[in-house]
Amino acid sequence: VSAGNGCGHTLLTPHSGTLSSKNYPGTYPNHTMCCWRLQAPPGTSLLLAFGDVDLEPSEHCAHSSLLLTDPQTGIAYGPYCRNSVPSAPLLVTNSSTVTVLFNSTSHRSGRGLLVSYATSQHPGTHYTQEHISPDPPLTMCFSVYCPAGCKDIHGDIWGNPSQGYRDTSVLCKAAVHAGVIADELGGQVTLSREKGITLYESTFANGLRSKRGSLSEKRLVFHKVCCLLSPACDDVLEVVTFSASSWWHEVDVLGQDRAWEAERAALSTTGHSWAAEPSAEAAWLELDLGTRRNVTGIITKGSSEQHDYYVTSYRVSSSRDGKNWRPYRGSSGQEDKVFEGNADSQGEVSNTFIPPIVARYIR
């Protein structure tokens, strides 16, 4: 839990999380405080990674400070500020509960703080590839644990899942974009550092927009665990039948008929696509995969440049028998997940199902 007027981006889960001061990495405001209470499962201990602690210096950090306490033992860590920084980027505690207290008085400078944590079950918390090795070889495979909350931390990513990411990208943010972890849970990621490429193309995927990037010496390539077991896990699934709640029978300005039928919803279709009747509410498109399949994600695209229509957001439901439907709620499991769709009619947008859907029918 967190409380106070000085809290910035915060996502706390029992196994990992991310917290930052208000406005980070901009200057934190005067006369604010935030208190985060971190609670890990019984039998585990907390590991805290200091991504950045930049609080204006003062004697004994009296003006702005970061203080961590273990309420079970009374042990305190800090106070920390710019002239009294943590001695190591990783703090290993022996407690499952830690209180993190940040406060500020009047000051002029300072980015504030960025801290992540994980439990002793998941050591190795990272934000950027610089934390992995100061001088890695050209090709190098490694595994790191990314905490929950990486999606909204400061920093850019260049590239996409198919070609990889420029090695200056924020590693765990790129992992969310690639769909190998869910931001609300975090998780272990496996990747390799390989030879760079001339150009990294921008894409929108899993709620994140990557940037178009230039030549780099190295790049980061993420590997999905399922692909290590089954090379076909990223294959495009064949749809046996498309059906829909309705379809648009258009008569254009020249009096010509155009049928926006469900069968035109396939991603490879040229020209116009499927569209529901314009007056329809709660429209849906249904895909019959022929048999029960493991569905790991979805790609959507607009109707084409000529017909400038696209879906901006949607929900997903699945069924094994075509009668009983289950809404997709993602890794949090609390409410139906709303996926971000397209912002234009040309680009493709990917969204990953974590966990995957096992079903024959998808709506």
Automatic annotation (TrEMBL):
Coiled coil: none annotated. Disulfide bonds join C7-C34. One of its GO terms (molecular function) is signaling receptor activity. Residues 227-363 form the F5/8 type C domain. Residues 115-220 form the LCCL domain. PROSITE patterns: CUB, FA58C_1, FA58C_3, LCCL. Residues 7-120 form the CUB domain. Keywords: Disulfide bond, Membrane, Phosphoprotein, Transmembrane, Transmembrane helix. SMART domains: CUB, LCCL. GO terms for cellular component: plasma membrane. The keyword Membrane applies. It is found in: Membrane. It is a single-pass type I membrane protein. This is DCBD1 protein. It comes from Urocynchramus pylzowi. The lineage of its organism: Eukaryota, Metazoa, Chordata, Craniata, Vertebrata. The gene is Dcbld1_0.
